[in-house]
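Per reviewer request, we include the raw input and output of the structure prediction for the construct analysed in the revised manuscript.
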Amino acid sequence: MVHIHFYSKEEIISRTKHRHGETKIGETVHTIQDTDNWEQQLKYDQAKFVVLGIPEDIGVRANHGRGGAYAAWKPSLDFLLNMQSNQFCNGNELLILGHVDMDDLMEMANGLNYKLDTDIEKSRWLVGKVDARVCAVIEKISAAGKIPIVVGGGHNNAYPIIKGINLGKKLHGIHVINCDPHSDMRPMLGRHSGNGFLYAYHEKYLTKYAVFGLHESYNIHTALALFEQHSADLHYETYDDIFVREQISFELALNNCIHFCKNAPCGVEIDLDSIQNVPVSARTPSGMLPVDVRKYVYHCGTSLEACYLHIAEGAPVLAHKQMDNKTGKLVAYIITDFVKAVAKRPL
């Protein structure tokens, strides 16, 4: 069973603010009309990109983090739908599939006490259920020859996305580039948001992995040692080298990561933790600017054989006093940057 809440054309239109003489992305995007035969429709639809939400934060809480990552999807979609469909980015390139249904798992997770070891174990069991649902949907999207654009949820979802791409394309490993302060290579002691890439690497779904903008003071020594021991497969460029010591330029550091991940299908990952003062589970006062991450996405899209985009960890509900709409707008910018970049990549 595939757990998807499909969005109808009528629902998409209702979320789009119409203005005379303008055409919004929400007016031109594709949707699934026949949900009973959605896989067939997906396969033959002309849209190249499939947009999918994951409204969950179980993996973050299972990693002793603050919840809230479930909330990024809806405002991101609303801002995307209300951008202009024009010569630079046409909504016809996008199919809005819907979101992975997580309501029952979230209800179980909300009943847990994350200060208790026994409930942490239960939460990590629930993350396994999240993995299965996300993987099943990504596998179908990938098998249809589309590029998934995934928004929301914790970074735990990197693992099922990577696995789903492999299964859908019948591959034996892909490359991944990740803009993130953390490597997310914590020990495999149950699934959570901090170890998705290690699980994927251990199970050979991930063959080469580069982290761009890693924070030196927020990564455990065992993970850093792993990068040293497996330098043929694992690479990072640190935020400290780029922005603090200025020992390497932004452009050269990014090019190093891109070069490391070339010559194979490559996933493009963004943890919004990497951006200064964005509301996330691990908010940072010392991070990249939004334009830095937009440049990262654009250069990855033009230079790599991108097989998916994943934007994780946004938690606008954690903004001070009120919901932060700027997070959704930033995610929408990132999505359109990626679409424009992939369109420019030579066939």
